[in-house]
Amino acid sequence: MDLTTWTYIIVGITFALYIGVAWWSRAGTTSEFYVAGGGIPPVINGMATAADWMSAASFISMAGLISFMGYQGAQYLMGWTGGYVLLAFLLAPYLRKFGKYTVPDFIGERYYSQTARLVAVICALFVSFTYVVGQMKGVGVAFSRFLEVPFEWGVVIGVGIVFFYAVLGGMKGITYTQVVQYCVLIFAYLVPAIFISVIMVGNPIPQLGLGSTMSDGTYLLAKLDALCVDLGFNEYTTSHQGKVDLFFVTAALMLGTAGLPHVIVRFFTVPKVSDARKSAGYALVFIAILYTTAPAIAAFARTNLVNTVNNKPYSEMPAWFGNWEKTGLLTYEDKNGDGIIQYYNDENEEYVSAVANTNGWKGNELTVDRDIMVLANPEIAKLPAWVIALVVAGGLAAALSTAAGLLLVISTSISHDLLKKWLHPKISEKGELKAARAAIAVAVFVAGYFGINPPGFVAQVVAWAFGLAAASFFPAILLGIFTKKMNKEGAVAGMITGLVFTGAYIWYFKYGSGTPEQYWYGISPEGIGTLGMLFNFAVALTVSRFTPAPPVDVQEMVENIRIPRDAGEAHDVQV
Q: What is the DSSP secondary-structure string of 389-409?
């Protein structure tokens, strides 16, 4: 069978599984819709958390980023993994002990303020919509190439699938669907990695293959270093990013992970506080399987790409090259008219002067969207069609699983935190459930629109979401748990400061007139969330010092959350 047939079969089977599981586990109450009734076992929750957390950015974009950035791309690995550990073991158990549905719910109750709740809702919506855009683009990329439908229709199809199981099942349906999606995505990630590792270095373990020798006796990374230098790029194994920006980007990703509401809410779905810790440990193991494989896939993909296309006649390019050209995510422009692909770094003035001008080259002729590297890698390596189709299904599983979790956060923020807790406190459970489903339906279509018109490549958009989460949620949550004296005035002022500063900085340098030369202390928009977080802390602590302390009952509540009395038990989940 050809690739298209395999893709339709495998993707069709996985979609049928998602819909079937969602129907079987559909929610009937608000508790099931918001937190799956609080009865998910730790192993199941750990697997669902891994799928929720490993988005299209992890599956599709991370290895693509590393393949082009080399060692410097490790900031995404370090930031996201370190952030998960911080969230899972420092924050999540305490939030679970608090026993509410959402992060805005925690902030509203902890800071005894509807204003604080409203600011938290705005932050949750802003972060979640920014993040979900990246997932929708990932869905469109996969559909447009492998199912041979326009990018826009790919996003629409993805929106339809998410609409069905998210609206129908709520957190209960999403949880069990994410378990299936984790199995699909991890299998799809490992199979081609093992194939390519065996082909390139003769080692079936990709993590070890990264440090192995190729058939000509040279180490893979040494070969890749030489290929990059020969094309005017930096050495693959050396970081040329400023140390300040490297630190700030890594910290923003780490702290942003700890403030992501769709990940935090997963720990509200287990029966006990001790189960929150257990599920965190399981999730870390499940996540590590993919994250330790990504650097190997990145190195394999970049090596194969360069060897396949550079200095080769365009007329001799394999079928995958033309197929990706049709999507617009890979482009070739014959600038000097010789019919041969010149792929090199034309921003390296020394290389251009010494090599490109000497050979009569008129500029780099190949542009590759980083988001295609994982999806194109099996084709470049000439793997069987069923393996390529499996990767497509895995990429879709990663994007859809995270999109569903984010959309649920958006839904609960509107129906529970705004409607139930503020605008219409007397609404019935049935009415609240209807409102939640209506909110998630609207959110799905808004996300689809911005997925069709994305503001950047997947991992970059996601990095902005992490920065916004770091600058807004993280300080409020951390101070809310560990500082009894933090009051509503300080928390609100801090969140507003962090969100506005970080959002304005990103907007100015990505869409305004700002240039990289004007970055504050060399900090890129991807790393500015760390500085926004520091501003948040500074403003929150300063304002709280000059305003009234929290009520005694709130301080006692914080003390109860913090002290691990009866650590095996948690408060009942409350509406």
A: HHHHHHHHHHHHHHHHHHHHH
Residues above pLDDT 70, as percent of the chain: 93
Q: State the Cα–Cα distance between residues 481 and 486, nearest whole angstrom.
A: 9
Rounded-to-integer distance, Cα 136 and Cα 156, Å: 9
Residue 329 lies in a domain: no
Q: Which tokens hold the place of 539? A: 């403003």
Rounded Cα gap, residues 525 and 505, in angstroms: 7
Give me the residue label for tokens 């070969």.
223
Check the CA dihedral 564-566-568-570 and report its sign.
negative
Q: Is 147 helix (H, G, I), strand (E, B) or coil?
A: coil
Residue 79 CB neighbour total at 10 angstroms: 24
- 29-38 residue pLDDT tens: 777 777 667 7
List CB contacts of 13: < 8 A, sequence separation 6 or more. Answer: none
- Residue 571 included in any domain: no
Q: Which tokens in the block code for residue 80?
A: 């996201």
| Digit-coded pLDDT (tens) for 46-84 | 998 888 878 777 888 888 889 988 888 888 888 878 887
Three-state secondary structure of 332-388: ECCCCCCCECCCCCCCCHHHHHHHHHHHCCCCCCEEECHHHHHHHHHHHCCCCHHHH
The two structure tokens encoding residue 185:
């995505």
How far is Cα 527 from Cα 250, in angstroms, rounded to an integer? 7
State the Cα angle at 570 between 536 and 406, rounded to 5°.
50
Domain assignment present for residue 371? The answer is no
**Does residue 32 lie in a domain region?**
yes
Q: How many domains does the chain have?
A: 1
Measured distance CA(575)–CA(570) in Å, rounded: 15
At 219 the three-state DSSP class reads strand
Whether 315 and 321 have beta carbons less than 8 Å apart is answered as: no
Domain extent at residue 285: 3-301+377-562
CB 345 within 8 A of CB 353: no
Q: Quick one: 360 exposed, middle or buried, by C-beta within 10 A (0-12, 13-18, 19+)? A: exposed
Tokens of 57: 């950015």
H or E element: which one contains 516?
A: none
Nearest alpha-carbon partner for 214 in 291, 292, 299, 289: 299
The pair of structure tokens assigned to 39 is: 């009865």
Of 58-67, 117-126, 191-200, the poorest mean pLDDT is in 117-126
Q: What angle do CA 420, 422, 426 make, to 5 degrees?
A: 50
Q: What's the CATH number where 473 sits?
A: 1.20.1730.10
